[in-house]
Amino acid sequence: MILSSTAGHKQSLYRKVKLLNQVRLLRVQLCHMKNMFKTCRLAKELLDSFDTVPGHLTEDLHLYSLNDLTATRKGELGPRLAELTRAGAAHVERCMLCQAKGFICEFCQNEDDIIFPFELHKCRTCEECKACYHKACFKSGSCPRCERLQARREALARQSLESYLSDYEEEPAEALALKAAVLEAT
Which GO BP annotation is one of this protein's (predicted)? Predict the structure, then answer.
């Protein structure tokens, strides 16, 4: 089995070869699903079905064997991956454990529409923190979770600095008190 990475040429190659781009999108979805199913005790059988395709198809998004490229060209690989994607989506829809791993969009706060990273048609994932938002709601460069985490880091840094400075200020006073106690005792 010869494997080839498309990482260096990916954008232009995927733009030119529509079937390959469709396979890539399915692989992205399967990668997200597989990561979710690894932590779901009810998805053992489904994970076994994911193992019917070569591991690199669901783990390394830009790695293809010659067989993968041939099967893509013949129109065979896409339908196999689409079937796994449908099975995965059906599991998530009916599994309480997987539903609990979904996201509520922090922009619109719609609790009736739980979103998942594999829902590429309606979900946008923050590159930094991996939180999910509706594509329509996401504002470029403005991730609420990243902003919240940054504010928390800054507050902790300020608190740590203030604590350090107060410890430093207390040392001379403690030294003076100890010196006075020693002088008084003599």
Answer: negative regulation of endocytosis
Question: If you average pLDDT over every residue of the chain, what do you get?
Answer: 84
What dihedral angle (degrees, nearest 10) is formed by the CA atoms of 100, 105, 110, 113? -50
Distance CA 65, CA 86 (A): 24
Cα gap 9→87, rounded to integer Å: 31
Residue closest to 75 by CA, chosen among 19, 29, 21, 25: 19
Q: Which of 14, 1, 19, 3 has the alpha carbon at shortest distance from 76?
A: 19
Q: What are phi and psi of 165, to 5 degrees?
A: -65, -40
- Is the CB of residue 71 less than 8 Å from the CB of residue 77? yes
- The strand pair at 123-125 and 3-5 is best described as unpaired
DSSP state at residue 177: H
Which pLDDT tens digit goes with each residue over 137-159? 887 767 889 899 999 988 888 78
Which tens digit of pLDDT belongs to each residue from 33-73? 999 999 999 999 999 999 899 999 998 888 889 999 999 99
Q: Are 23 and 77 in contact (CB under 8 A)?
A: yes
d(CA 35, CA 47): 10
Kindly report the pTM of this predicted structure: 0.75
pLDDT tier at 178, thresholds 50, 70, 90: very low
CB atoms within 10 A of CB 59: 14
